[in-house]
Each structure stands twice: as structure tokens, then as C-alpha cells.
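Hypothesis: this fold can be encoded by more than one sequence.
Test: take the C-alpha cells below, design a sequence, compare later.
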């Protein structure tokens, strides 16, 4: 062994074993192998670049994605990074002190990906907690914790996770995440509205960075604003996340190629904007490489399993949907256009994929992790039936195909998890929503928001009428928060965790209600 090779090996071992020491890490940089130098990556020292935290996601039984972005000055162009790739080292260990390094490697933070890093760490053991960290430009990142899923054949006695949505930065503080990070969870599911694209508005507790984004650089800046929050960073650092976007990651209420204001934004301009928004979303989320967008297209619907206990069918209800509000208003009586059988919310390919997956699933619980309310709900405040024209209620024929499939093929214990509404509901999914005596097929748990809507109230103003008119609707809360779920082979429990206020910091956490579903019995009961 040549002396230089020996030195390289020793230096590398020094970093791997005692990576917390910058001197050892710098020694490794000075002896980088030739293939790393050939890429033209810089190893210069920059100001502290991990200002937006770290994250992990997409847990499989032997792999997990770890993420970071280098952004020494998050609101500056390119986050304050030079226009060149930067080397990033990463390590995965079994202990938070990194005494035993399980996996390590080198990646690049490239300018064309906003200097983000997505490492798909493979060869891990099932159902195990791991710790990870990054090193770049002379700095060590905070330590993140993550967890792999159980192996395919395992039936874990319990899986705990939280789901959340709708974290408008201006409308409040992320106190809910501070509390969530103190729970002992296996993962977090985020169901949309990670950012809001709105302009800065005065009189709110916090403020957006700039005008409405429609370029990649502007969306990146918006993510930088959101991801600067310490409680959000803590929830990412503590758990693996499984994410799917809703509308505000692109444009309020868009559907497929149609923006909120089609008269102001022609199709081509909106598709360019959608491409920028999807690119920024992928860059900032701990997603796998298959979700990296190609122009205005992004692959988000996917399936993640927790052994034989849980199949998560993660849906994308925005990218392929037919136009919203076919009857005119946002809430309206059911009109002829609504019943058009060609209307779709998933698109043909995703709908086939979902039914195929539900048909083949062997999991005890089949979870649709998705954006907008699924079960029928009559929102009319008078005698007349009225439905919301941008939820599944606006795609009744497409929904009935899924409902009929569930009734006939009987995938075990269907559960729908939903974001979007900014207040919490529990609703039962009926075989025929016009007949309250028809078979119950499963429960839908609609979460509230982390902050969107600002400080809440006990119930929405319309909730008493909605509950009176809809026997399938069991519960409403209009307080901010998240839902913490505990799932065993025998039962599912959803705890509605709420904070009494978000416009000032420091709110305590309360459990407003808990609902239980037993294996084999689709009804939900208040615990
Ligand atoms: Fe929202
Ligand atoms: Ca939304």
C-alpha cells in the first residue's frame, strides 16, 4: 500500500469514527479520491449551510431517503450558494453518537436541484431506528433520527404515526409540531399545503417572503421561508415523513392544467409554473428519485407498506383531476354536469393503480393517504342537498367506482386520511350515501390544519347542521393541530390533538377526542 493510500484510509476512518470533529473531516477532504475531484466539486468553506434543517422520508424495510439543502443565506438567490456543485458527506448510524457507522457516502448538492441532497440509503435492517447527519463546506449538520418499516412478512404489534396538513406560515406558529416532535412515532404523513403561494399580508403573526411565486427561484425562496421554522425542522429531524401535496404547493384550487385564474394565466404559462412548483416541491421533500419531476409532470402516487399491518396508498388528487365547480359555485346542489361519468379526480392510470393495489393488498389496514374529503357530506344549511364542488363529492361517479370495488373485493379495513379542510371531522364511508341504513365500509379521518385559519373555535359555525343532516358524520373540531394514530392488528385509534391557539407561541397540547375502529368492524366509535 502506497503511503498516500494509507493516509487516505486512515483519514477516512478518522472521519467515519469521529466525524463530529471538523479537523478530521477536513483531513478527509484534502485526500479526496480522484473520481470525486474529477466532478469539479468544491470543498471550500462556506457559512453554516444547514439553515433549513434535515429530513428523512419514504421508509421501506431496508431503505430510507435522507435529505438536506445547503443554504447559507436562505432568502438570497441560490440560498447564498455559489453556482457550482458542493460535496456533501453523509453518515447513517445505529446510535446518535455515531459510534457504529452503518452506511456512509458522498453526494453532491447541485445548483440545478437548488443545492438539495436526496440520498436513498439502502441495505438497512427492517423496523430499526437509525441516526443520520451530513457534513459540507466545513460544517456538520444536526443529527436526524429515522426508522425503517417492518419487513414484508412481519405483523408488528403496533405502529404509531401522525398525520397533518395545511401549515400557512403567516397565520400562526407551528406549536403543534413542537408537541408532535415529543411523541414517539414511527413516521409522519403530510397530506398537502406544505407551503401557501399567497402574497405577504400585514396584520398576521408572521410574514411571507415575497409576492406570489411562479418561478423556480421564487418557489425555492418560499420553501426556505417555511423550512426556517425550528418546530417544523424538529418534526422532520425526529421522524421519517411521507408527503403528498395539495393545491397550494402550486396554485390555489388548480386542477390538472387549469390554474385558479385561467383568464390571467394561459395554459402554457401555467404549465411552466406547475413545472417550477413541482420541481421546488421535489427538491425540498425527502422523496425518492422516481418522484423527480419531468417538466410539468411528477410521479407522486405510490404505495408504502408497514409489514402485514398497514398499506399506505398515497394519492395525488390534483395533477390529473377534471375541472372543479362544474355546477358553478364552490358549494352547490348536485347538477347534471357533476354526474358526468367521464369526470375523474385520480385520472385513469392512478385509479387503475389504486384498485389494483387494493385488490392485491394483504395488509390488515388499507389506508388512503390523500388530500380532499372523500365521504359524501351534505353541506346544505337548508332543506336542499348541497355539496362542495372541489372535493370527492364533485366526482361522485369516480368515487362510486372505488366504493363499489371496496364493497365487492373487500380489502381489509379501509381507512381514509384527509387534509385540506382546516377543521377536523370523522365521517363514515357508506356503500350508498343516499341511504343512511346502507352498509358502512370504513372510516374517514379528516385532520385539521397546523396553522391555516389561525386560532380556532370548538366547532365550525355550520357543524351542528352538518352533523344533524348527515348521520355518517360523527365529529367536528375547529381547533388547529394534528392527528396521532396508533394501529395494531386488532384496532385503530385516531387521537385528535389540538392546540387552543396558534397566533402566539407556547400553546399546550390537548386531546380533543379519540376514535377507535376495530378490525373487521368498519364503524368508528368515540373512545
Ligand atoms: Fe390548506
Ligand atoms: Ca388545499
Amino acid at each position: 500500500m502506497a503511503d498516500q493510500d494509507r493516509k487516505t484510509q486512515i483519514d477516512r476512518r478518522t472521519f467515519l469514527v469521529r466525524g463530529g470533529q471538523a479537523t478530521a473531516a477536513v483531513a478527509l477532504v484534502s485526500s479526496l479520491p480522484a473520481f470525486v475531484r474529477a466532478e469539479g466539486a468544491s470543498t471550500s468553506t462556506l457559512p453554516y449551510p444547514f439553515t433549513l434543517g434535515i429530513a428523512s422520508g419514504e421508509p421501506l424495510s431496508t431503505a430510507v431517503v435522507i435529505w438536506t439543502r445547503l443554504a447559507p443565506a436562505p432568502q438570497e438567490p441560490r440560498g447564498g450558494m455559489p453556482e457550482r456543485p458542493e460535496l456533501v458527506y453523509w453518515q447513517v448510524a445505529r446510535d446518535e453518537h455515531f459510534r457504529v457507522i452503518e452506511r456512509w457516502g458522498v453526494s453532491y448538492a447541485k445548483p440545478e436541484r437548488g443545492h438539495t441532497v436526496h440520498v436513498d440509503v439502502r441495505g438497512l435492517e427492517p423496523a430499526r431506528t437509525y441516526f443520520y447527519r451530513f457534513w459540507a463546506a466545513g460544517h456538520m449538520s444536526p443529527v436526524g433520527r429515522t426508522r425503517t418499516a417492518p419487513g414484508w412478512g412481519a405483523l408488528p404489534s403496533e405502529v404509531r404515526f401522525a398525520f397533518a396538513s395545511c401549515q400557512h406560515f403567516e397565520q400562526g406558529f407551528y406549536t403543534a409540531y413542537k408537541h408532535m416532535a415529543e411523541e414517539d412515532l414511527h413516521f409522519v404523513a403530510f397530506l398537502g399545503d406544505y407551503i401557501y403561494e399567497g402574497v405577504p399580508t400585514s396584520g398576521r403573526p408572521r410574514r411571507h417572503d415575497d409576492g406570489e411565486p411562479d418561478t423556480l427561484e421564487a418557489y425555492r425562496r418560499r420553501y426556505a421561508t417555511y423550512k426556517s421554522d425550528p418546530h417544523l425542522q424538529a418534526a422532520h429531524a425526529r421522524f421519517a415523513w411521507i408527503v403528498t401535496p395539495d393545491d397550494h404547493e402550486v396554485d390555489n384550487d388548480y386542477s390538472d392544467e387549469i390554474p385558479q385564474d385561467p383568464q390571467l394565466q394561459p395554459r402554457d404559462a401555467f404549465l411552466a409554473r406547475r413545472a417550477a412548483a413541482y420541481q421546488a416541491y421535489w427538491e425540498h421533500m425527502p422523496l425518492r428519485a422516481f418522484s423527480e419531476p419531468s417538466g410539468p409532470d411528477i410521479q407522486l402516487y405510490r404505495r408504502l407498506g408497514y409489514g402485514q399491518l398497514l398499506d399506505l396508498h398515497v394519492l395525488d388528487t390534483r395533477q390529473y383531476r377534471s375541472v372543479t365547480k362544474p355546477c358553478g359555485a364552490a358549494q352547490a346542489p348536485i347538477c347534471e354536469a357533476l354526474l358526468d361519468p367521464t369526470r375523474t379526480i385520480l385520472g385513469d392510470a392512478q385509479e387503475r393503480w389504486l384498485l389494483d393495489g387494493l385488490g392485491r393488498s394483504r395488509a390488515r389496514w388499507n389506508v388512503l393517504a390523500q388530500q380532499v374529503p372523500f365521504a359524501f357530506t351534505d353541506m346544505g344549511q337548508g332543506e336542499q342537498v348541497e355539496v362542495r364542488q372541489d372535493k370527492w363529492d364533485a366526482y361522485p361517479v369516480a368515487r362510486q367506482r372505488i366504493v363499489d370495488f371496496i364493497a365487492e373485493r373487500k380489502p381489509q379495513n379501509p381507512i381514509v386520511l384527509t387534509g385540506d379542510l382546516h377543521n377536523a371531522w370523522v365521517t363514515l364511508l357508506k356503500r350508498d350515501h343516499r341511504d343512511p341504513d346502507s352498509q358502512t365500509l370504513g372510516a374517514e379521518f379528516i385532520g385539521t390544519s397546523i396553522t391555516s385559519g389561525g386560532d380556532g373555535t370548538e366547532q365550525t359555525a355550520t357543524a351542528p347542521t352538518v352533523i344533524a343532516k348527515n348521520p355518517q358524520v360523527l365529529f367536528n373540531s375547529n381547533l388547529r393541530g394534528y392527528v396521532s394514530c396508533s394501529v395494531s392488528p386488532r384496532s385503530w385509534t385516531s387521537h385528535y390533538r389540538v392546540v387552543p391557539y396558534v397566533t402566539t407561541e407556547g400553546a399546550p397540547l390537548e386531546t380533543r377526542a379519540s376514535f377507535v375502529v376495530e378490525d373487521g368492524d368498519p364503524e368508528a366509535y368515540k373512545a
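The longest strand covers residues 101-109. The chain has two domains: 2-147, 159-526.
Hypothesis status: open.
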